[in-house]
């Protein structure tokens, strides 16, 4: 029982953690990331841009960034220009891989090199609990209970998503196996018919030459 409880707590603590990265991008180019999330799940991204000047990256308010997010069907659900530092938030409408693309328009012909620090949070990690506690006037215990309830709900969504994916791949595997079986059967029939017609032609040839 204790082992099971520890496994559940560990899953809740590490599920849907925040992923923080930074990358370099030239002005006028696009950098995309894929984030696989269940349906009706919060996706939040925080970013900060620095520009290369005199061999050092410095903060610049003159450089903005364009964020475009597409759902698994390729439908654009967010397309907006942001300032040099900020946060974007969406809620997924369908389950699957969402593409998050960031780009910066060139401010000069030289196309400066930018460094973008990006944090992407999914699920309950994307929720601003400090703001919720302030608005709803929750104490520490109530806030912690709220977080645990959100984590349980997120874990349930994730399990449903994984089951749906498993069912999809199972059907796909069965479909491929059926096609392979029918293709093998068709090949055998083709070989049988080919052999039959070859034997028939050989027999006709031997009869015509009076060899039989």
From TrEMBL:
Q: Which residues form a coiled coil?
A: none
Q: Record's superkingdom?
A: Eukaryota
Q: What is its main location?
A: membrane
Specify whether DNA damage is a keyword of the entry: no
Residue stretches making up the GOLD domain? 30-122
As for subcellular location, the record says: Membrane
List, alphabetically, the GO terms of the cellular component aspect.
membrane
**What family is this protein classified in?**
Belongs to the EMP24/GP25L family.
Instruction: Kindly provide the name given to this protein in its UniProt entry.
Output: GOLD domain-containing protein
Organism name: Mesocestoides corti
């Amino acid at each position: 029982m204790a082992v099971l409880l520890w496994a559940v707590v560990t899953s809740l603590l590490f599920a849907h953690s925040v992923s923080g990265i930074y990358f370099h991008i030239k002005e006028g180019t696009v950098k995309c990331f894929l984030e696989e999330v269940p349906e009706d799940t919060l996706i939040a991204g925080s970013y900060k841009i620095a520009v290369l000047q005199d061999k050092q990256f410095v903060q610049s308010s003159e450089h903005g960034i364009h964020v475009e997010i597409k759902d698994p069907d390729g439908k654009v659900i967010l397309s907006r220009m942001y300032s040099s530092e900020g946060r974007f938030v969406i809620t997924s409408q369908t389950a699957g891989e969402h593409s998050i693309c960031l780009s910066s328009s060139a401010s000069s012909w030289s196309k400066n090199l930018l460094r973008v620090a990006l944090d992407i949070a999914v699920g309950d990690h994307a929720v601003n609990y400090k703001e919720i506690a302030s608005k709803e006037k929750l104490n520490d215990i109530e806030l912690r209970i709220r977080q645990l309830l959100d984590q349980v709900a997120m874990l349930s969504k994730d399990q449903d998503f994984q089951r749906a994916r498993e069912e999809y791949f199972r059907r796909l595997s069965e479909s491929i196996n059926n096609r392979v079986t029918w293709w093998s059967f068709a090949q055998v029939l083709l070989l049988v018919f080919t052999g039959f017609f070859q034997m028939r032609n050989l027999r006709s040839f031997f009869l015509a030459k009076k060899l039989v």
